[in-house]
Specification:
The chain is built from 13 helices and ten strands. By secondary structure, it is of the alpha/beta class. The protein has two domains: about 70 residues, Chemotaxis Receptor Methyltransferase Cher, domain 1 (Orthogonal Bundle), CATH 1.10.155.10; about 210 residues, Vaccinia Virus protein VP39 (Rossmann fold, 3-Layer(aba) Sandwich). β9 and β10 form a beta hairpin.
């Protein structure tokens, strides 16, 4: 790959998806784009670049972006956030939303669906407490191909072995030849939608809880700050944001503040004075102690 080809792809990916690709990661371009060239019957990366530059083959540009922005995911990744969700977050919102009996959750980088389905399994385990409640889970991603996989809910043996407890596999999946499919009732708990985090959030509505884990690490500081600002705008005063273990808002945005002892969890700042209702909730206090 020539320097000009790399520079074109680097600029296009930053402009279209926010992905920052350094020269040290140039190997990713070749490893991910060679299969794309084969799939599109294109003669190598050089021809992919030619077609992307021409603007006459939008499917080529889309395929490049999807290949480079699709990241691996697995069930109950870094298990702690899901424990916080079950033991602290949900007890708080079940009390705080008694007037509406409605909770909205957004997985802002749903990838192939493991995270939203992990949340759905957690909610299903709480089913006796959720009778009469309307709980929505929206999973979004920039890749339509990966969202198709998420909607189908079909996973390999290797994928279900990564983080998924055996009892959940038996309870929530059906065996199909060499694969496992999420049962229909669990799939129905999650809605999927194509969405680019660089676009306006206006059409998405409001969310009580946002999981935006392991995606900000791919953006530069300015883009991170812009995305965090738009997330804050679509959350209520007691909204909660879950980030990945290697991510933080510190030094990037003052619109969120970390929850003490709940690593990776942030609440909207500047809208409450003193300790927040979330931090003072008995379930949260007990979990964080």
């Amino acid at each position: 790959m020539s320097p000009d080809e790399f520079n074109f792809l680097q600029e296009m990916l930053k402009r279209e998806s926010g992905l920052v690709l350094t020269e040290e990661k140039s190997y990713l371009l070749e490893s991910r784009l060679i299969p794309v060239a084969r799939k599109l019957s294109v003669d190598g990366i050089e021809e992919l670049v030619v077609r992307a530059k021409s603007g006459t083959s939008p499917e080529v540009k889309k395929a490049i972006i999807e290949a480079m922005t699709t990241n691996e995911s697995f069930f109950f990744r870094d298990i702690k956030p899901f424990e916080i969700f079950r033991e602290a977050t949900m007890p708080y919102y079940l009390d705080a939303r008694q007037a509406t009996h409605k909770i909205k959750i957004w997985c802002a980088a749903a990838s192939s669906g493991q995270e939203p389905y992990s949340l759905a399994m957690t909610l299903n385990d709480l089913a006796p407490k959720l009778a009469g409640w309307n709980i929505e889970i929206l999973g979004t991603d920039i890749s339509t191909e990966i969202l198709d996989k998420a909607e189908n809910g079909l996973y390999t043996q290797f994928e279900v072995q990564r983080g998924l407890p055996v009892q959940n596999l038996v309870k929530y999946f059906d065996k199909e030849d060499e694969h496992w499919r999420v049962k229909a009732d669990l799939r129905s708990m999650v809605k999927y939608r194509e969405f680019n985090l660089l676009d306006s959030f206006a059409a998405l509505g409001q969310f009580d809880i946002v999981f935006c884990r392991n995606v900000l690490i791919y953006f530069d500081q300015e883009t991170k700050a812009q995305i965090l600002a738009r997330i804050a705008e679509c959350m209520p005063p007691d909204g909660l944001l879950f980030l990945g273990g290697a991510e933080t808002v510190l030094g990037i945005s003052d619109l969120f503040q970390p929850i003490p002892k709940l690593r990776g969890v942030y609440e909207v700042s500047g809208k409450v004075s003193g300790p927040s209702a979330f931090m003072e909730h008995p379930a949260v206090a007990a979990f964080a102690s």
